[in-house]
Specification:
The chain is of the alpha+beta class and 89 residues long. 20% of the residues lie in helices and 25% in strands. It has one domain.
């Protein structure tokens, strides 16, 4: 079964964050601090524990595990295209 355009998270790098739009919902991800003891800093650090719910007005809706996996794949692809490094904590 093929994927439709609406079935793929769209990732936009904004000034100071990442905006993920998918299926009519939005999740804004702000950068976390670099991990302790990390010699090479990533361009962006995503704190996975912060990715629980969508942004308002959908903030009562949890991001499901399969959705989170697709979101992280889309973030990886977007950063690869831009030649940037992303780290997950």
């Amino acid at each position: 079964m093929g994927r439709t355009r609406g079935d793929r998270p769209e990732v936009e790098l904004t000034e100071g964050g990442i905006r993920v739009t998918w299926r009519g919902r939005v999740r804004t991800i702000l950068p976390g601090p670099p991990p302790p003891g990390c010699e090479e800093a990533a361009d962006f650090v995503v704190i996975l524990d912060d990715l629980v719910c969508w942004d308002p007005p959908d903030d009562g809706t949890e991001i499901e595990m399969r959705e989170l996996q697709r979101i992280l794949e889309a973030i990886d692809e977007a950063f690869d295209r831009l030649g940037l490094d992303v780290a997950y904590e």
